[in-house]
Amino acid sequence: MDSIKTEQSWREFQASYTQQKKKRSMALCIRKIAVLLCLGAVACALIWFGVYTVSKIGKWLFSPKPDKTASETAPPKRLDKFQVQTLVQNIDILNATTDRFFADGPSWTYTIHTHLDTRLQEELIKTLDYLKTLDRGKPELIAMVAMDGSTGFIKAMAGFDTGKPGNNPCTSAGYPAASIFKIVTASAAVEKLNYTATTPLYFNGRKYTLYKQQLTNQKTKYTSRVTLETAFAESINPVFGKLGQLTLGEATLNKFAEKFGFNQSPDTDFNFSVSYFSTTGGDYHLAELGCGFNRDTLISPVFAMTLISAVANNGQSLVPRLVDRIANSDEEEIYKSTKEIYKTPISAKTAATMKRLMKKTVSSGTAGKSFRGYSRDKVLSNLLIGGKTGSLSNREHTVKYDWFTGFGQRKTTKDTLIVTVLVGHGKYIGTRACIHAKNMLKTYFSAPETQKSSLTATSAVPE
């Protein structure tokens, strides 16, 4: 069998070679076109990017530059009292050991200057630290606050509340006023009825009870006769119960409670709760209100100081103020506080009578035992001291509220410190409010008289 021929002929080889050459030539041409197209696209992109970049650079170079400081929030040149109150809200004043505080703004810092007496504050904090170590006699809560009687500056604020650790008991108004309200009732009797310290008053039964049968003007052989001064100093409930129900009445009690600032909020630079008073009740409730023997009338220790300030300032109560001045980061003063009158609830004559009643409370009344011997004390003997006590349990009878609010006035310079102490005793009665108040006055006025006079002079505002 003949073998099959598989080799190409010369003619076939030439034809195949020519065809492959044409293909190679066409592929090379396509590659060149593709490269040119790519180079063209890259060139266009570079040209566009260059033009755009040059445009942006030119715009940045030749356009006006924004003022960096203008774009930031500028610190205020002045602060109003509402802005100050907002700043103070975020500062922990209770138990402070300094008289200067700092508050941050968006890009600056405020320096807040106060008139807190750091020496007095330190003594109060030592007292609190000691009380916390007690097993028996440790209070459930305690509030100790002091105010300059001629300027309204807060001088001290210390305390604690074991039931509400974040609570400031000095500014809270959740506590029954108890016999502290007798300040209002007695002032109304002096102002409206022209009572004097020696006006005779009568009561039946015991001093510290308040039964309906005691609320009568009927006199028997068991009726006791006292003066207004004695009734106030000894906090005799039936006398003030009859004043509230039978003599003054609902309209007058409401009027004088309003005049002293109940149910209102003064324009202060720090927050404290609004006190509460209401006569929505029967005749017996008026008697309870008049003598404070109720759990409906509520006040704060700070508010109690405003009641005393009216007595100490010839009938004008002061707006309590914490801040003296505020400076910005450049030490420029942007706020300066001024002395303000809150209310004028009583006349100067009535204030003088009330001062006499309060001094009797300390010398021989309900505060007499705690202040015994103060007339022979090296420091306290230089003072005129007066005040009012009060005590009442809470509704559950688990806490007994113990009040003292009053004043100490230096006989020579008339420098006055108003103090209020509230102690919430638990199962065991510990140190009473009067003792704490006495210690506060002694600590404050034990500083040299020249030092106290200079402090008052620098804080006083020309009238």
Structure description:
By secondary structure, this protein is of the alpha+beta class. It has a single domain (81-459), classed as DD-peptidase/beta-lactamase superfamily (Beta-lactamase). Helix content is 40%, strand content 18%. It contains 12 helices and 15 strands. It has helices spanning 10-62, 68-71, 81-89, 118-132, 182-193, 228-233, 237-260, 283-291, 301-312, 348-364, 433-445, 449-459, and strands spanning 100-104, 109-114, 141-148, 154-161, 175-176, 200-203, 224-227, 298-299, 317-318, 323-327, 333-336, 341-343, 383-393, 400-410, 416-425. A 5-stranded antiparallel sheet has the order 4-3-15-14-13, sandwiched between helices. A hairpin with a 4-residue loop joins strand 1 and strand 2. It is elongated, with a radius of gyration of 41 Å. The model is unreliable at 1-7 and 453-463 (pLDDT under 50).
